[in-house]
Every structure is written in C-alpha cells, then in structure tokens.
Design brief:
The protein is of the alpha+beta class. The protein has 6 helices and 4 strands. A 4-stranded antiparallel beta sheet has the order 2-3-1-4. A hairpin with a 6-residue loop joins strand 2 and strand 3.
Amino acid sequence: MTRQGLDPLDGRMLRLLRERPREGLLEIARRLGVARGTLQARLDRLTRSGVVTGYGPDVDVAALGHVVEAFTTFEVDQPAREAIAARLRGVPQIVEAHVVTGPGDIWCRIAGTSNQHVQQVIDHVLEVPGVRRSTTVIALSAVVPYRVQPLVDEVAGLSRDPDAPRA
C-alpha cells in the first residue's frame, strides 16, 4: 500500500465523519463549506486507496459483557504459523492478532467475560499444534484507547499538540 497524503480538508472531513458517523454527507459538506460532490469524491479516493477501511459502528466489547482485556503473546513453531493464524481467526474472543518480533511470535488481544474465561481462551489456543507457550498480561485500564484521529490530523497538517513529538 502506498502512503496517501492528506490535506487539511481531508483531515477535517475524516474528523467529522468519526465524530458524527450518523450524519449525512450533505450535512458534513455543509459544515465544511464544500459541495457534497467534492466531499464524496474525496471520500471515494480515500476508500479506494485504502486510507478509509470501514464505515461500521465502533463497538465497546465491555458493554457486550467482555470486561476483561488481556494481551497474550504465543510462541509458535514457525512452519505452523499460517495454520495457527487461521485457527486464531476462528476464536471470537481474539479481537486482534499480529505476528511480532521479540520474545514472542504472535501477539493477541483477547476479550473475556472474566479472568477464567480468558484462561479458557488461552488454553484453547495452547491446544493448537505448533503453539508452544504463552505469556499474558491483563489490562487494568486504557490510558490511550485505540485512536487514529491525532495521526490523521498530523498527516493532514491540522493543528496539533505542541508537546507531541515531531516526525
């Protein structure tokens, strides 16, 4: 994927779409002072280029009853990594997984209803051939929840926190 530049209008458009996801494009275009067609063309360009990846609602897994968030690193046999990844995709409580460098091989974010539930998910993954061991930490609170808007603002050249590191 090639890097996509964003101008300030793109940044403001993306900010409004995130802040007001149920508001129509006509109203967002009005707020930005541009024609609806201009906004639609920019949104289409950003979608085609892979910058915009979805339009679904954000879901709070804790509100679904999965109040425990764990981060687990699995050490795996490298030849089995693809088969293991396929199995991980079949576990609903694994909400994110990445191949990583360092002391582990695959990093997973797990959403569980309790500590015991998280343990059951980990035990299930440990039964997969090629998974050797796991290391898990339980999240106590989120000091910076997942977000992209500050990065979008920076790339688009919008105002930023003066204390933020410069690229």
